[in-house]
Design a protein that fits this description.
Blueprint (H helix, E strand, L loop, with lengths): L4 H10 E9 L2 E8 L2 H17 L1 H7 L5 E8 L21
Antiparallel strand pairs: 1-2, 1-3
Length: 94
Amino acid sequence: MEFTPEKRRSSAEDSLWAVVAVVGRVIRIAEIFPSRTAALHDQAWREAQVRAYASFLERSGQAPPRYMIKPIRRTELPRQWKPLPALGFLNGNL
């Protein structure tokens, strides 16, 4: 099968980078970005927020979320997906 420029372009446009939040066995896509650099910046910001609230999480017995980035295609997003607020874990929104 040969790829035409149109197929390559649509494949590239379909590629995104996801910041993924993990707490225990729960995995949620927190946010998506068109570039890996933007995803890395968001991951770092979210991790800083978790560090800032580390004592609160410890006192309340909540496990802190871990964040990682991974490539994802737009077609892999759940139908009802919405961005996860950075501090959503404080309200149990993870």
